[in-house]
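Case study 2.
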Amino acid sequence: MPFNIRYYLTYFYYSFFRSKGTPGKLSVKRIFLLIFLFFAFPIWNLYIRIGYYLDNLFFSDYKEKAFPDPIFIVGNYRSGSTFLHRLLLRDPQFTCLKAWEIYFSPALSHRWFIRNLNRISHWIGNPLEKFVKAFDRALNDIYSMHKTGMFTYEQDSQLFYHTWSSYNLFAAFPFPELSRKYIFYDQEVSEKRRKGEFTYYREILKRQMFLHPGKQYIAKNPDFSPAIETLKDFFPNAKFINLVRPAEQMIPSMVNLWANNWRAYGSPGEPFPLIDTSGTGKTLVPIPSGTLSGFAIQSIPCG
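Prediction:
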C-alpha cells in the first residue's frame, strides 16, 4: 500500500501557512478539522494496513481470483454519474463498493471483523446501527448534493484517501496548485506513482470480486476522466461510459458542489469561491477531462 508522505505534509503546510485568501482559510472550525485529521488519519491508516496484513495470513485465497474487467462511468462532475451508477446497481448482476467498505473495510479481514461486531451489536440493542443512522442523518444535513451514507454506493476513487494521493482531497484542501496534477493525471503524475496507486486500487477490486463471484464490477468516478490511459493499462478489457451534460448546466452545478464541500470543511469568505482569478476569467475550479479514444466508449448525453 503506497503512501504519499510528502503530499500529506504539504497539504498541512498549505493549510496552516498558505491558506490566507482561500476557501481553506484558518478559522476555529478549520483548525479543529485539521487537528482531528492530523491525529486521526495515521490511526485510521494503520488500521487499514493491519487489515491487508491479516488478509495475507487468513484470506490469501483471494489472490487466485482473476483481475476484474470493470465498467467505468466517467465524465465531468455533476453530469448524472451518481444517478446512472445507482440505477445500474439495482440490477443484481452488478457490484461496487459501498461507503463503509471504502472507508472501513477495504480488506477482507476488515469485513469479517465488522460483520462480527455487528452481530454482537444486535445482541445488545443495536447501538452500532443507531450510531450509523444518526451519522448518516448528520452527513446528509451537511452534504445536500445527493443522498449519501455508509450503505450507499460511492465513487471508489475515494480509496486513494488511504494513500493520500487523490483529486478528492480538493474537497477538504481547496488549493488548486496541489490539485492540478490530478487534473492531468496521465501526463503529470509519474509512472512509478501511477503504477503504485492503481496496483493498489486493482487489488481492492480483486477482493470485492472474490466476495461477489460472477458479478460485473461497475464504478463511477468523474476524477478518473484524466486517468483513462492508466485505467486502460491496468484493465485492458474495461468498458467506459462517458456522460455528457451541457456545459451551461454542468458548470454552475459543479461550482455549487465544490462551494458546498468547502463550507462543510471550513469557513470560506464568499459563497462561491475560486470561480476566476485576477479578473482573467480563467476557472480555478478544476474540470477533469481525459482522452476517450482508441477503445470501447459509450457517450450518453444528459440533461
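Residues 5-301 form a domain with the Rossmann fold fold (CATH 3.40.50.300).
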